[in-house]
From TrEMBL:
It comes from the Bacteria. This is Cytochrome c oxidase subunit IIa family protein. Keywords: Membrane, Transmembrane, Transmembrane helix. The chain crosses the membrane at residues 21-43. The lineage of its organism: Bacteria, Bacillati, Bacillota, Bacilli, Bacillales. It comes from Gracilibacillus marinus.
Length: 50
């Protein structure tokens, strides 16, 4: 006894938004540049006064 059944297969693909990744990368790189700029300023100007 074989039963033939019609089965519909539906494939779904998750689309990743690469622009969100780029925006986040630029934001955190900017934070790092500002942080290291402040550290550089403190080392070169503030700590040399002592």
């Amino acid at each position: 006894m074989t039963e033939n059944k019609d089965v519909e297969v539906q494939k779904t693909e998750k689309k990743s938004d690469s622009s969100k990744v780029g925006v986040a990368a630029i934001k955190y790189i900017t934070y790092l540049i500002i942080f290291f700029g402040i550290i550089w300023f403190l080392i070169n100007y503030v700590f040399n006064l002592f």
